[in-house]
Automatic annotation (TrEMBL):
It comes from the Bacteria. Glycans are attached at N77. The active site is at E387 (proton acceptor 1), E387 (proton acceptor 2), H515 (proton donor 1), H515 (proton donor 2). GO terms for molecular function: metallopeptidase activity; peptidyl-dipeptidase activity. GO terms for cellular component: membrane. Zn(2+) 1 binds at H386, H390, E414. This is Peptidyl-dipeptidase A. Gene3D superfamilies: 1.10.1370.30. Zn(2+) 2 binds at H386, H390, E414. GO terms for biological process: proteolysis. Disulfide bonds join C355-C373, C540-C552.
Length: 616
């Protein structure tokens, strides 16, 4: 799957993120959850923290399973009835989560033991968008979320006389090589996002009240609390990570700008300053892989894996079996029999389903599944490795108590399968599998690394700009009148891109992103990216790999597997730094591994950029 969408992996958190944004109009379900009056000190026989946590975990476990089952049936058979059932189950789970978050906030964490304190903290953060206790305000917040969600999902604009959705606009923007057409698509989608602005501003105010009632200064502080360090430290870490990664991005930026200028002329793309945002092949300039043909100066000689897969007789099941085999080679137990009987591997012919790739644990235990509509392509094969990473992680921490059956932090879960995919998609691994003949030429390393860098690196500054903007908005440092100018200031600073024409002051360009409308935090994606390469580097080191990191495969290395399983088995029971240290020896997310991975292409870019005035 693409990293832009939250994958529904396992435990409560992600499901609840979605639940809060779900359609709250299912009949018979209260639109707004009611505040629980329960207070540990109010009753005659106050509930102890241990008793409360046992009850909370039991209730959440049951409600999550009910919601997962309803969601699964819905996602694999979309009808008005399953829609109703899944909404109802999600709403029940959302209401329960809010009640428990408030009850947790009423306990004095300093009086609790370390395990209990950790669980109380997790409970307080069960929802990304906390409503105020006031029922009327909570109902209003819920309505605003529903409105933001549906206004985003149904957004469309007129393009060449046709109503155009985001998905259509994205496809057209990826392919067009006409700057005027690109501008119209890019501006059109932002025009449609404008209508979200007043709802968003009101949502921000109400959620601030809700966050304060849970003991957070605002929603941004609540979001930053998920990394086992102080919210201000999370921001400082982000600045540090970005400072280290910026040279790689700046080199890519410089070369891409030069190539765009050569292609379109200096009047469209000047040779200095920011890049025109609409020329990068992506609606948010966060993935430039679509314009590889413009950026790379020559043909890339590389084995066509798509063709080889078909020639080798691969089908969807064989892709999943092969991916499972990689994990098993590291010493993981094979996936349970229920995985093979219950998953959805291919698109059924007789009903509507959700084809977005995702990994699930249905019962919060060993009933893990994959939901995809697999096609036999290199990209889909990589996605299978990604999704199985979630499933093997879920199985690894199954012995933890319910609240700790989760990733070590929000970035971990996405990083595991991507880390495995770095090994699995090397040419060496394709040859080992017999997909690529042993004597096939290796191809052009720089071209392949440049493609990967265009796909993966531009997400980093986008993530920084996006969440810094939201943190400021949530804290009240940016008023709605300044939403757009403050947004473009951050985008200019971090991404070094600029709109094709000046933007209207009353616009809401940040709202053109799904994660803004749906309130999904974004720095977890940046963290996942860092972890992915950090895990890979540590694993290749353990495997005594000598050579460039992008050629390393850890297939079959039992020592790597043992250490990996030790880290995964912790789930969320320990601070993320401990989990990280167990596998990598370092207790901090560290961008150096990612830089090391791309070092060959960075050197190449620097040579190409000689004589350019880089920077923006
Ligand atoms: Zn995922």
């Amino acid at each position: 799957m693409t990293i832009q969408r939250p994958s529904r992996n396992s435990a409560a958190l992600r499901c609840i993120v979605l639940a809060m944004a779900a359609n709250l109009s299912a009949p018979g379900i209260a639109a707004a959850p009611t505040a629980s009056p329960a207070s540990p000190s109010g009753a005659s026989a106050p509930e102890t923290v241990e008793a409360f946590l046992a009850r909370a975990e039991g209730e959440l476990d049951a409600a999550t399973e009910a919601s997962n089952r309803a969601d699964w049936v819905h996602a694999t058979n979309i009808t008005p009835d399953t829609d109703w059932l899944s909404s109802a189950a999600r709403n029940r789970l959302a209401a329960l989560s809010l009640d428990l978050a408030r009850e947790a906030a009423a306990f004095d964490p300093t009086a609790a033991g370390p395990v209990e304190r950790r669980k109380l903290d997790l409970l307080r953060r069960l929802t990304n968008v906390p409503p105020p206790a006031d029922k009327r305000k909570a109902a209003r917040l819920s309505a605003l979320q529903t409105s933001l969600s549906s206004n985003y999902a149904t957004g469309a604009f007129d393009f060449q006389g046709k109503a155009t959705s985001l998905r259509q606009a994205e496809d057209l923007l990826a392919k067009t090589r006409d700057p005027e057409q690109a501008r119209l698509l890019w501006e059109g989608w932002r025009e449609s996002a404008k209508r979200l602005k007043s709802d968003y501003a009101e949502m921000v105010d109400l959620s601030r009240q809700g966050a304060r009632e849970l003991g957070f200064a605002d929603m941004g502080e609540l979001w930053r609390a998920g990394y086992d360090r102080s919210p201000s430290q999370v921001e400082a870490d982000l600045d540090k990570d970005w400072a280290a990664l910026k040279p790689l991005y700046a080199a890519l930026h410089c070369f891409t700008r030069k190539r765009l200028s050569e292609r379109y002329g200096a009047s469209v793309q000047p040779r200095t300053g920011p890049i025109r945002a609409d020329l990068l092949g992506n609606m948010w300039s966060q993935n430039w892989g679509n314009i590889f043909d413009i950026v790379y100066p020559g043909p890339v000689e590389r084995p066509d894996i798509d063709k080889y897969l078909l020639a080798a007789g691969y089908d969807p099941m064989r892709m999943v079996k092969t991916a499972e085999g990689f994990y098993v080679s590291l010493g993981f137990d094979p996936l349970p029999a229920s995985f093979w009987t219950s998953s959805q591997f291919v698109e059924p012919a007789d009903r509507a389903v959700d084809c977005n790739p995702s990994a699930w644990t249905i019962d919060n235990r060993s009933d893990v599944r994959l939901k995809m509509c697999i096609r036999v392509t290199r990209a889909q094969f990589r996605t299978v490795y990604h999704e199985l990473g979630h499933d093997f992680y879920n199985l690894a921490y199954v012995k933890q108590p319910f609240l700790f059956r989760r990733g070590a932090d929000e970035g971990f879960h996405e990083g595991i399968g991507d880390f495995i995919a770095l090994s699995a998609t090397t040419l060496g691994n394709y040859k080992r599998l017999g997909i690529v003949p042993a004597d096939a030429p290796g191809g052009d390393d720089i071209g392949q690394l440049l493609q990967k860098a265009l796909d993966e690196v531009p997400l980093l500054p986008f993530a920084v700009a996006l969440d810094k903007w939201r943190w400021s908005v949530f804290a009240g440092r940016i008023a709605p009148d300044h939403y757009n100018d403050s947004w473009w200031k951050l985008v200019a600073e971090y991404q070094g891109v600029a709109p094709p024409r000046p933007r209207p002051a009353d616009g809401f360009d940040a709202g053109a992103k799904y994660h803004v409308a749906e309130n999904v935090p974004y720095i977890s994606y940046l963290k996942a990216r860092l972890y992915q390469y950090q895990f890979h580097e540590a694993a290749c080191h353990m495997a005594k790999w000598k050579g460039p990191l992008h050629l390393c495969s850890i297939y079959g290395d039992k020592e790597v597997g043992t250490r990996l399983r030790q880290m995964l088995a912790l789930g969320g029971s320990r601070p993320n730094s401990e989990a990280l240290a167990l596998f990598t020896g370092s207790s901090d997310a560290d961008p150096r591994a990612m830089l090391e991975y791309y070092r060959p292409v960075l050197r190449w870019l620097e040579k190409q950029n000689g004589g350019e005035r880089c920077g923006w």
